[in-house]
Amino acid sequence: MFSWDITRLPGPDKGVYYDAYVMIDIYSRYIVGCQVHVTETAELAKEMMEEVFTIHGIPQVVHADRGTSMTSKSVARLLNDLHVTRSHSRPRVSNDNPFSEAWFKTLKYAPVFPERFGSLQHARSFMDEFTQYYNHAHRHTGIGLHTAADVHYGLTDAVDERRQAALSAARAANPARFAAAGSAPKILTLPEAAWINPPAKDPEPQDPQPQATPA
Predict the structure, then answer these.
(1) What is the pLDDT of residues 39-83, one digit of tens each?
(2) What one-character DSSP code corresponds to residue 200?
(3) Exposure letters 166-177 (e unless 16+ CB within 10 A, then b)
(4) Contact 105, 134 (CB under 8 A)
(5) Percent over 90 (pLDDT), the chain
């Protein structure tokens, strides 16, 4: 599943903003698309999706809130043509798009995030650099302290093998530092799945009521 949203970046003067279109793979946390424009339009959103799908493949589901671009006919038509299921946040519910919102918070609370961007080019270059850092260097506890790129491109098994070997070597060299005797130190594991609107669980089957037997 991919999630996407648009956030505003402060421009050089008061009242001037740039719009950052950002799409994320919610399982790997990998930013599959990030574009900055001077305005928000459905056509620009559609163009970003076409580029993302060409590079990263067509997802089964795309989630977004209910903004004008997210619910536009051009975006809906593109997703319908590609047989992608559209998922939307509930009306007036701000936490129904948690992966995108969490990433925007990470972005804007980063020490390197500027108070204002001097130009559109400044905003674009900053977002390119920050996205590269987030995808390839930032380690996320929600994905076993892997980078988003390791998860997105299926490199986690090799990384986990190296980590386990390093932990085992550390235990052999300094056994007193490890509390659990006899058990190997463990590394963090990946989640089984990631959901925004998880499917409802099937109700537990009920035992049939015994039928009365005629006397």
Answers:
(1) 999 999 999 999 999 999 999 999 998 888 988 999 999 999 999
(2) P
(3) eeeeebeeeeee
(4) no
(5) 60
Rounded Cα gap, residues 144 and 154, in angstroms: 13
DSSP string computed for 94-156: TTSSHHHHHHHHHHHTSTT--SS-SSHHHHHHHHHHHHHHHHHT-EEGGGTTEEHHHHHTT-H
The answer to whether the CB of 31 falls within 8 A of the CB of 134 is yes
Q: How far apart are CA 59 and CA 53, in angstroms?
A: 8
Q: Which residue has the tokens 């270059």?
A: 125
pLDDT at 185 over 50: yes
Complete domains list, the chain, with CATH: 2-152 (3.30.420.10)
pLDDT in tens, 88-122: 887 666 667 888 999 999 999 999 999 999 999 99
Angle (nearest 5°) at CA 56 between 100 and 45: 55
Q: State how far the alpha carbon of 178 is from the alpha carbons of 3, 95, 132, 159, 162, in Å.
A: 40, 40, 36, 22, 19
Cβ neighbourhood burial of 63 (10 Å; 0-12, 13-18, 19+): buried
pTM of the predicted protein model: 0.81
* Separation between Cα atoms, residue 53 and residue 148, nearest integer Å: 18
Q: Which residue has the tokens 């421009």?
A: 11
DSSP 197: S
